[in-house]
Amino acid sequence: MYFASNALARKLEKLAIESWKCTDLSPSHAYLLMLVVEIPGIQPTGLSEHLRLTPSTITRLVEKLEKKKLLVRTTEGKLTNVYPSPKGKELYPSLVQCAKEFQALYASILGKEESNRLARNMTRIVDKLDV
């Protein structure tokens, strides 16, 4: 399972990178930015939970998107909130289109039903392994 899951991750990453190439963002940056546009003011903890990434990875992704002027962070007491910038909001439709193209691409290879089943099973398995 270890090698098969890593091989699957590498192959999906290659497809995802190709799908998001036109945005000049990595898939991780793109998904994070989409989430920030959809939930303005989301906190890094929420991003971490939604994307299943460690807090330190979220911080690095946010910092890079902040440097690209695609989002902004605000601090209210101990809380940090993440908001899309106007430039980030403007990019959102392209990101959604890339996500749809990515999904269509892997569904065309695996089949729609198989790709949906695989995603559900992987999510369920990851949840079980969260100990």
Layout of strands and helices, then pairs:
Blueprint: H1 2-20, H2 27-38, H3 44-51, H4 55-67, E1 71-76, E2 79-84, H5 86-110, H6 112-129
Antiparallel strand pairs: 1-2
What would your notes on this structure say?
The protein contains six helices and two strands. With 131 residues, it is mostly helical. It is globular. It starts with a helix and ends with a helix. Helix content is 73%, strand content 9%. It has a two-stranded antiparallel sheet. α2 packs across α5.
Low-confidence sequence ranges:
none
Main sheet properties: 2 strands, antiparallel
Instruction: List the secondary-structure elements in sequence, H or E.
Output: HHHHEEHH
The number of helices is 6
Distance between the termini: 18 Å
Helix content: over 70%
Morphology call: globular
The gyration radius over C-alpha positions equals: 16 Å
Mean pLDDT: 95
Concise synopsis of the structure shown:
This protein has 131 residues and is mainly alpha-helical. Helices cover 73% and strands 9% of the residues.
Key phrases:
73% helix; mainly alpha; 6 helices; globular; two-stranded antiparallel sheet; single chain; 131 residues
